[in-house]
What does this fold into?
Amino acid sequence: MRRLICVAALFGTLAGAAPASAQTKQQIAWCNGKDGATPQQMYESCDRMIKSGKYKGAQVAPAYINRGRASYDMGNKDRALADYERGLKLQPKDLAGILNRSNIYSERGELDKAEADLNRAIAINPKFTLAYYNRGTLFHNKKDHKRAIEDFNAVIKNAPKFGPAYNNRAVAYSALKQYDKAIADSTMAISLLPANATNVDRAVLYGTRAVSYAKKLDYARAIPDISEAVRLNPESRVYLTGRQAMYDISGQSALAIPDLDELIRRDPNDSSSFATRCLVRTRMGEPEAGLADCARALELDPRKAQTFANRGYTYARLKQYDKAIADYNTALEEKGYVDGNPATEDDIAEYLYQRGVVKIRAGDALGGAKDIAAAKAGNPDMVEFYARYGI
It folds into this structure.
């Protein structure tokens, strides 16, 4: 899902004032983020406007808000928030200030404050499309996907060619397991990409659609999409990681190895890639090589739950059930799981399900059934998904 959108306020000259000099006109343009202004130029120009003493009250509010926007773009969010507060104190209905302040609240995890600002912006201007877009993104982050879709619907109604809204609605539909709708939205978002869109932006959309196809178990379409994302943004680890997973779960584990090798080549200290290669090599019938990868992963990160689970899987394939159960126990302990509780996270459901199967094969039918029941209680879909791997 794309990041929240910021906007600039409009700072103008004083009504009735003498004609502005060329220098002042340039400062105003840069303060407004125009004429190709860099964040530093935007900040300095707004700063001069504020300190000139020519602008009072609500007239100077946009300069504070735009100086805040420049600070945000330069990575100083505390300074940005302070300027948004100053601007909104002078002009409480400035939509740019409200929208931008809500973004900082959202990034800080203060989601209720962020939502309150967006509600306020929409109350001031019920057709403020960007406020609906950001609120939809916020609802998605709060896992309220239905309300997110309602807001993206409002964006699309007002701006039917605004591609990011389709992409974000696709992500929300996918979270609700409405994969056909998600795929249709991703396809629309791709078709609406402007000719000058960057390859990075293009990759995001293909990656989003790939995930929906994969969740639908349509790997024949998912893999070409994720491969296109890799081609468009070859430096991204996310797409390589996604492609190797799709190769693996679709029964093409051998094709996952080159992507994992490349991830490890780029970062030899990446414990996750070693742990994943451990799992993939085991599924390819190379459990001893898998154990070596898991050992390296644990050297790099001795407490990573997923590595213990992957090694447990490998021991299970070797029919070393006691070692397998011990590793699943450690994985669950690392996640803070208490036996007998339902799974609260997807990976806990995975570990419980696999431990349950191993217990049954080790002769503990009752203990295995309890684990599998707890996994199903937490996430029945995850059980079905991981059952495809087999133990």
Residues 199-215 form the longest helix (17 residues).
